[in-house]
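Subject — a protein and its fold

Tokens — whole-number codes for backbone shape
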Amino acid sequence: MTRTPARVFGVADRLGTVEPGRIADLTLVDGDPFADFADLVRVRATLRGGFLHQRPVVERAFTGYGTPAGAAADDWRGVLHQMLRDGCCGGAEGGV
């Protein structure tokens, strides 16, 4: 949620900006998705629930995932489908 929706929904005191004391889940990408939408799949880390999940750790959690022939190394569709099917990061029940 960004600043404007946080104000609209009346939660701007705790959401909407990245600063100390705020609640935020972040996805860190390599690049600028505003300049190149394809940069959204170049995920390097995710901050969720106060825990940093770096890409190599998340990839190791899905040992059955392999990059399909011809797919780019930054192609997360396979990982995404496995996470939706099996849960995330060490046995969480239900999907992501």
